[in-house]
Amino acid sequence: MQLRPFGDTGMHVSEIGLGAWQLANPDWHADDPRAAHQIVAEALDAGCTFFDTAPGYGQGRSETVLGEALAGVRHDVVICTKVGYKLDWGTDFSTAAIRPSLEGSLRRLRTEYVDILLLHNPPAEVMDGRLASQYEELERLQQEGRIRHYGVSLDWRDELELVLATTASRAIEVLYNAFFQEPRAAFPQAQARGAGLIVKVPLDSGWLGGHHRGDARFTDLRRRWTPEVIARRAALVEAFAELVPAGVTLAQAALRYTLAHQAVATVIPGARSVEQARANFAAASVTLPAETIAAIDALWEREIRADPLPW
């Protein structure tokens, strides 16, 4: 597992991290704490040092599992959690809610500090540092040593540009994958500002892992997709598969694609099983040819850019 610098923060993180939304989370039909512990152990064995979570993931179960599983290696790993979504998935992005939310996360994570604290997809007015008082509170928490760095989890290029231009954020979690390339145009700005980029949803909620086809039906959070969206995604997966070199799995190609941009510090695929985790971390040993990366760029330009897929 290669380590990458996290912007200009001085931290280094594994290029493949673990997105912990699915750990012990009934919303993903993955509510076994023992299996969650095994996934974290697999991540550590693979050399993973970056773990991403949030209070709302499994109503705090994700943070609790990570706190238990990482207790013996706490100072060897980087933990990222968030504020804004509560345990019940209600929202409170107020400045006054930041500290209590963090304190709850610290208790569940069994730690005195978190390495990164993100505002979790806040409304636009909270992303604008010229208007929002939340960043002053984040600065105070940083000065107190409760957090090492802070930033925002977001989805779109204009959001990324706004946060970079109006705040001192050094951590940005951004939606980016072969089927959602829109934010990439702002990646050089993040790099110039010394911000570390965390790529979320790199496998397009499983599609780019090769787990679904056109007859897929979902009973978990992915049931939001209509049959038409499922059919379109399935067709795009087949087109993507044609671009993947022999001997490389779809998931490996998708993860290496997101890591091809030098501004990206780490990518955080989730896993509901040890087998999925192992398959994701295997991408650490894969290299994609430049022509494959260019072909994936072209697929998005041709088929998706003008008509983005709903997340």
Task: Tell me the Rg in angstroms.
Answer: 18 Å
Helical content, roughly? 25-40%
> What is the N-to-C order of secondary-structure elements (H for helix, E for strand)?
EEEHEHEHEHHEHEHEHHEHH
Low-confidence spans: pLDDT under 50, at least 5 residues?
A: none
- Which structural category do the helix and sheet elements fall into? alpha/beta
Could you say how many structural domains there are in total? 1
Give me the oligomer status. single chain
Question: In CATH's first tier, which class applies?
Answer: Alpha Beta
Count, helices: 11
What labels describe this entry?
single chain, 311 residues, alpha/beta, TIM Barrel, 11 helices, 10 strands, 37% helix, globular
How would you explain this protein's 3D organization?
With 311 residues, the chain is of the alpha/beta class. It has one domain: TIM Barrel, CATH 3.20.20. The protein has helices at 33-45, 61-69, 95-109, 124-127, 134-143, 157-166, 187-193, 227-241, 250-259, 274-281, 290-303; strands spanning 3-5, 12-14, 18-19, 50-52, 78-83, 114-120, 147-154, 171-175, 196-200, 264-267. The strands form 2 sheets. It has an 8-stranded parallel beta sheet, with helices on one face. Strands 1-2 form a two-stranded antiparallel ribbon. Helix 3 (95-109) links the parallel strand 5 and strand 6. Helix 2 packs across helix 3 (95-109). The longest helix has 15 residues, at 95-109. The two termini are 29 Å apart. The mean pLDDT is 93.
